[in-house]
Amino acid sequence: MFKTRLRREFIELLEEDKEFRHIIAGLIGLREILDSLKQLNERFNEILERLDKHTEQLAKHTAILEEHTKKLEAHDKKFNEILERLDKHTEQLAKHTAILEEHTKKLEAHDKKFNEILERLEEHDKKFNEIVSRIVGLEARFNGLERRVEVTIGSMGRRWGFDLEKTVLEIFREVLEKKGIEPGKVEKFRFRDRDGSVTGVKGRIIDVDVLVRDDRVYVIEVKSRAELAHVEILPEKARVVGKVLGKAVAKVMLIAVNVDKEAFERARELGIEVIYGNILT
Fold it and tell me: CA nearest 257: which of 145, 137, 121, 150?
């Protein structure tokens, strides 16, 4: 009740007393100002706290920045060194490029010459193949001719017998004379073993050429073409000659225009001396 009356009187006083009204308004404004100042002071303190924190953070950032600056300076120094080395490498690369270009030109020139040489070699190879083909053809013709000669000589041997042997001996006269054998003194030896007491075969005939000199006997087989069978029988012929003549056989010889390779090798194994014109393979 008292509060209600006091409030009503206070309101009436405000309405009626202008000076009182100004005093009250001033008091109200001052409180608002004080409240605002208090809020500002609190806000300022908050800002100061945040500023202190920012200052600490800024100090940390400054320290980090200084460290980064030092590292950057070191990196910058290294980078400058790298740039200097790069400049030197660039100069060296330019020199190498010039040398490489020179070598490239030389290689191109060599390649050109090499291609020219290849072309010439191809031409030579072509000519060589042509020559080889001609040689092969000539060889074939020669082999054919050789076979014809062999057949002809064989035919002559069958027809002429001892005359052919003399002809062959004359062909090798120079070689024989160097060995101390005179072709003109070579004689035909023919023996028939009537009872088989010498050869072991009754009625067997031994035909061979012989040369008797200084009580030594040379057994000589003369053929236009000597084959393995002719060689194999020679030791037996030499044995028979020595037994029949009662003289030691000093040497066994085979004289042939052509001799088969197999016969030639077998004769060497048996110690038979071979005088020949060609070895047939």
Answer: 150
